[in-house]
Amino acid sequence: MKEKLTEFTICPMTEADLEGVLAIESNSFPNPWNRAHFLDELRSSYAFPLVTLGPEGGVIGYICPMLLLDEGHILDVAVHKDFRGYGLGKLLVERVIAECREGGADFVSLEVRPSNHAAIALYRKLGFKETGRRKRYYENGEDAIMMEYIFKEDREERDAV
Questions:
Q1: Is residue 2 part of a domain?
Q2: Which residue range is the domain that position 136 belongs to?
């Protein structure tokens, strides 16, 4: 990991953030989401997209999670290439885990490409477990690894106290 980045803010994504989000998205994924997709996330009552703003106020990362009933789900997450290695992705995922736990979720799920070794390592380090595969999930025919972070045991321990 690089030297600590100290000047950043994690906050709710707004429509004003979309230019920065779209630039990161298009440089991070072979089939990026478009503006309409992010607008749908901003308007959804279940979604709570977040951005990381850097020292000069620009978007340097984002995450698009949702919380529906007892399930949290991470749909999309990326960090600007110049800011990778500072732990921002980890902080974004940890923030979503905390918010989903507070919101009553039993687990947080996600899909990740098997070729995305850095993301898989991060998710495992945070406690996500592989639960299965979705065959030919991505546009290029690549499978998706399904992973979950489960709160249930934590909740049972808290409720017993």
A1: no
A2: 9-160
Q: How far is CA 93 from CA 62, 80, 97, in A?
A: 10, 15, 6
**Number of domains the chain is built from:** 1
152 located within any domain: yes
Residue 153 backbone dihedrals phi, psi, to 5 degrees:
-60, -40
What is the set of active-site residues?
111, 123
- The full DSSP string for 96-112 is HHHHHHHTT-SEEEEEE
Other Cβ atoms closer than 10 A to 80: 19
Q: How many CB atoms lie within 10 A of CB 76?
A: 19
Give average pLDDT by consecutive 10-residue segment, the chain, 161 residues: 74 98 96 96 97 94 97 97 93 98 96 95 97 92 95 58 51
The model scores a pTM over 0.70 = yes
Q: What's the confidence (pLDDT) of residue 20? A: 98
Q: Which residues contact 61 (CB under 8 A, 6 or more apart)?
A: 24, 51, 52, 77, 78, 79, 80, 83, 88, 89, 92
Predicted local confidence at residue 3, as pLDDT:
61
Residue 87: DSSP 8-state: S
Q: Phi first, then psi: give them for residue 116, nearest 5 degrees.
A: -90, 75
